[in-house]
Design goal:
Layout (H helix, E strand, L loop, with lengths): L1 H18 L5 H11 L2 E6 L7 E8 L9 H11 L7 E8 L3 E4 L2 E7 L18 H8 L6 H4 L23 H4 L13 H14 L10 E7 L22 H11 L5 E8 L13 E3 L6 H8 L7 H8 L3 E4 L5 H9 L9 E3 L6 E7 L2 E2 L5 E4 L2 E4 L9 E8 L1
Parallel strand pairs: 2-3, 2-6, 6-7, 7-9, 8-9
Antiparallel strand pairs: 1-15, 4-5, 10-14, 11-12, 11-15, 13-14
Length: 390
Amino acid sequence: MFNSIFILILTIILFQNCSQVKFDESLDNNSKKNLNPSYTVNYSPEKSFEDVDILFVLDESISMKRVLSKIMDGFDSASKANYPKNTRMAITNMAPAQVKNNEIDFNTQFVPRTQVSDFPGFMKLVSHSTIMDFYYNSETEIKYKSNFTQPGCSEWFQPTSKNSYGVNCLLANSQITLFPTGVEAGTVSLHQLIKKYNSEEQKLFRDGALVNIIFVSDTHDPGANYYGRNNAYTTPLTVNELKQSLLSNNENISGIKFNGIVPLPEKNNPLLKNLNVVGDLKNTFDEVKEMTNEGLHGFHYLDFIKSTGGIATNIVNSNWTQAIQSMIEQVGKSNDIIFKIPGLCLNVTSLKLNGISVETESFQHIKSIIKITDKTIKAKNYKATIECEN
C-alpha cells in the first residue's frame, strides 16, 4: 500500500514539472546559428600570415668557418625583426645520410664518421639535449667540442627566446661542429629528415602553418660530387618532389616557401631574374668565391626560392643585420591567397570574395585555413565572407 502511494505521488510531481517546462526559442536559434556560423575576413597581399614555422637547414661543414661570424651577427640581429604573431623556429644540419637499396640509414652520414648519430643536427632538430649528447660523448674530439660554448634551447623556440645563459636561442642552436662532412646537400638532408619523421609517425610542422625553409650555406646543393655515387641518390630532387615530401608529413600546412642565405650570382646575371633578393650583390662572382673559398655545382637552391616566392640573401653580405632582418620580416608573406577562419568551421558551404561566389573546386579548406587554389584569382585586397556548417 505504501509503495503504491509513493509511486502515485512521484508520478504527479513529475507530470507537474514537465507541464511547466518552456522551450527557450532564442536559445534554439542561437544553437542553429552556432551550427551554421558566418565569418568575415579581410585579406591583403601585404599582410603577414600569423602562424609561421621557420626551419633553418644549416651547413655544419668546416668551410663555413670563413663566413660563420658574419652569419652569427646576422642571426643575433634577427631577434629584433618584426615577426608574424605566432612564429616559431628550429634548426637542422645539412650533411645527408647514406642510402642503401633505396633505404635511408639514419645513423650514418654519406661520408662515414665515427659517432655521427650523436652530432647535434644530423637527421634531427638541434636542441639542448642533442648538444649535450654530442659534447659529453667520450669519443667527441676536443677540437669539435670547443665549437660549442653555449647550452642550447628546445627544438622549436620563439624568435625572442633565450637559453639559460641569456643568449638568443637562434644563436645557441646554430652552433655547429665545423666538421669535414664532404657533402652539403641541403635538399637531400631535409627530404631525409622528413622521411625519418614519417617513419616515427611524427609531424614536423604545425597544422595550418606557413612553412619557411631557409637554406644556409657557403655553397649550393650538393657542394661536392654526390649524385650518382654509391650510397647516394641518382639525381637531384626537383622543387615539386621536395614540396610533396614536406606535404607527405603534414598535408594540413597552409603553404611552403624556400629561402636561402647562399652564394648568389654577380649583378646583372640572368639567373637573378624573378629572384627576390635582399641585401647586396657583388660586381663579379670571383668576389663571392674568394670570400667563401668553396666550389659550386650550379645554383641549385635558386629554383626552389623562385618557384615559391621565397627570399635570397647573399652569403657574403656587407650588411648582415639589415639583410637578415629584411628576410625575416618577409617570411609571413605568401604567394598564395590564404584566409584564417576566426572560429569553428567543419565544412565551408559558401565562400565569397568581394561579394562574388567562389566555386568549391577553386579553394581548399584545411581545418582553420582556406587556401585559394584557382590561379586565375589574383592576389589583391579582398573581403571574404565564409559560411560554415558544423
